[in-house]
Amino acid sequence: MNSFTSLGVSQGLQKTLSNRGIDKPTRIQEKVIPILLQGKDVIAKAQTGTGKTFAYALPILEQSKSNTGYIQTLIITPTRELAIQVTSEMRKMTMKNKGFSVLSVYGGKSHEEEIKELEQNVNIVVGTPGRLLDHVKRGNLNLSQLRFLVIDEADQLLQIGFLNKVEEILRKTPTQRQTMLFSATIPSEIKKLGHKYMKKPQYIEVDEAEKSTSINQFAIFTVDRAKQDTVIQLMEEFQPGKSIVFCRTKRRVTKLYQVLKSKGFKVAELHGDIPQEKREVVMEQFRTGDVPMLVATDVASRGLDIEGVTHVFNYDIPENTETYIHRIGRTGRAGESGLAYTLYSSEERSMLIEIEAALNTRIQKQNLGNTISLKTNSKKKSEKRQGTKKKVSGESHSNIKGNQRGKSKTGIKSSAPIANKSTEKPNGKRSKTQIDSNERKKRK
Which CATH class is domain 4-206? Predict the structure, then answer.
């Protein structure tokens, strides 16, 4: 692996990185930084969690000037959360540079407050397309001397219908700018955007197999009406240090959140209808661990670098592989191991098969009974070895790993077959074991 020095990063920025515990560049940084320092446009394909923010931030900061009186850099993000995160990273890197300022703009903040800040000496603006375009049209955001433009998570901008607004913003910027586009996937619309608004962009791709991650994946067969009880039992058994439960809709998020809260769990909800001010509070509480459980829609699955997430639960199975990858990518970061559990019903089985086929891997199938049984047995063996029966909070459940593991194209590990077989039948029907279990619950 190269060093930041060999990539052309100055000693000053290296010292700032080192103070934050960052001493070696990631694969995407190794490939992108030298090209950007040459002034070339770049289209980079990289997943969240690969270090792409620093891949574009370091070259920009190396070439930026202080006290310019005009905006040098514009970074377009699909979500407010990502805008806040990128702004935070940029500010940390420029804290000692008094003539440098970074501003985030997005819906939910006061227009008047943003206008006042834009009138100051702002060097870098990070924001969502709608609010950025609004400021451009009102004459509050002058991009006439822009030097660097970043389009972050471009495929998500496309997915949520923001690409037209991005193009409107691009048309208001100088042609002699350096443009950087980062995306987890490069669909045809993104290629067209690059061809139309970029100067001979260099295409860079990071093989996800090289990504340092250790996510053990499991799928638990259930029925939709039993999902709430399943999640509650999993939470009670695993006691995860920090976890995210993903639901498909805002309504299902709120319903599950209310149930979990009524059961005494320290939990918060996150979706598009939550006011921005409250969303920021929720994210801060989750980052610090004051609220260790988050129930969310996919607004939380992209672009957020949250440290210490031990478990991800897919309450609703994702509709496509990309969403699945981004969801479970919230755990197993920075070399740590993580666990991802996906609940699926007979109706959702075909979607699970599609995800497995796309990842070229087998996701370990379980039911609730053998999941908890394995966890309990692993825990007892561990306690016996340690000579104690004291309950350990936030147990990682790493002993559930099998001896044989397959590695997918994404670099995400799948777990090996286990002795207890899933109670799901090939035709999607429940087995006698599961039916008997349900009957016993009814009698109780």
Answer: alpha beta
